[in-house]
Amino acid sequence: MTRARWILSAAxxxxxxxxxxxxxxxxxxxxxxxxxxxxLSQQSAxxxxxxxxxxxxxxxxxxxxxxxRTQEDRRLVENTVRDRVRLPAPFSASLGRHLNPVSAxxxxxxxxPSPPGWxxxxxxxxxxxxxxxxxxxxxxxxxxxxxxxxWSIRGGMSEGMPGTDAANHDxxxxxxxxxxxMPSPQTSVQAYLARIGQSWQELTLSQSDTALLAExxxxxxxxAEWENQVRPALxxxxxxxxxxxxxxxxxxxxxxLPPGYLFLAVRDQQIILxxxxxxHAMKQEILEDALTTxxxxxxxxxxxxxxxxxxxxxxxxxxxxxxxxxxKAGGKSCFLSFSGEAWKSVxxxxxxxxxxxxDELPKGLDARLLEDDSTELSxxxxxxxxxxxxxxxxxxxxxxxLALFGTKALVSGRxxxxxxxxxxxxxxxxxxxxPFIVISDQVHVRGSCEPSGSILNTLKSLPPPPATQIAVVFxxxxxxxxxxxxxxxxxxxxxxxxxxxxxxxxxxxxGVVEDLTAETIEQLRLHLPPPDFx
Length: 534
Prior knowledge:
six-stranded mixed beta sheet, 22% strand, 22 strands, alpha/beta, five-stranded mixed beta sheet
């Protein structure tokens, strides 16, 4: 071969090499990068975990930079690029033959874990709700179980579980600190926030949203999580806290009011209850106790209800110990009780100004009120009939309702005298038991009811029991009157059914009957067969 040919051959080879370097090599590098990214994306363990990874090829040598979240991620990336990248072999693509063209992997990847998630404990007293974001479902489940158990040990009850966000959070290396610093239930509302693995921090609900958002961001809460989870939970706690503050302020205001007081005076077969209490419920409870205790005596209600009296605190128990001693001359007695204190004997034969209770008055209670009441009662006890109490004018009609069905006899209603109530229940038991079970706890004694008079006719005319297990007897009567049988229909058991039927005895409000027979009506609904009932 001549020198010219040698020179021509060398030039041709150099041209071919140069063409490969300028044309084929960049194309190969692009194919390798594409193939490497494809095979990495197929690894389920790396899904959403390669945001910080950078991959380039220098010829057939891979260069990895950036960061991954764990050492396992780094090894998996390196092994995948080194061993699993495939490109078609030259001149054999149609045959399906592929080769691994990666000659080496140069790794400069750093391991930088993503921060752990966060949790919010929104507590209303001993009841708490757990919110937050964990790295995965396993971490969320274990944390929720452990925190619920810790809260329960401290006397509370919790619910809820954190969500998951594997793209932005990794599991905490240890959650011991989070579990150890778990707060205890308080009587008020509280909010606690923690980065998983770190200590809990209490949030001050009185701070602005801007300040609380800054604290939440520092503990890993994103703006979206703040809007969707944290702020709504804090708003609920703030509303509850506001209600608690208002309730506490009202309770403190009422606690500063002077207590109520009651005089109880007995002369012969008559009893006067006189004084001031804070609520109608307190007055009603006192009257019911007195009616039960002194069933055989005439009770006069002179109890006033005043918003200027403390609506709490029980008076001394009303018992027969407040009656005059048997055999004692005069047969009279007088006692005084302040709300929250026991009964004290009052010497009604001396002037009110000389009474010993004047030196023991609770703070804020005006002595002049008690002097006026004491004077009236002393005059009455000493026989001055000009001060005799006017007979009470009951405004509420008394009534009795009776329902017989299955094996039950349900008695309900309201009467003025405990003796009448006892006679009624005894008569129903004698008439129907056995086989009926008599339930009578819905018969109430009310001092505001009209007196019953003789009820012999009512007790002797109880309706006969139903003929079958399915049949129902429902009857209403005024004490002393006759029974009115009301046919049982489904319409009668609906709201307002008694008013629509128009069969109640005159003078008995249908709404009151429905209120006091609500349990009976519910029992009837359960007893009656469904659609084909007539």
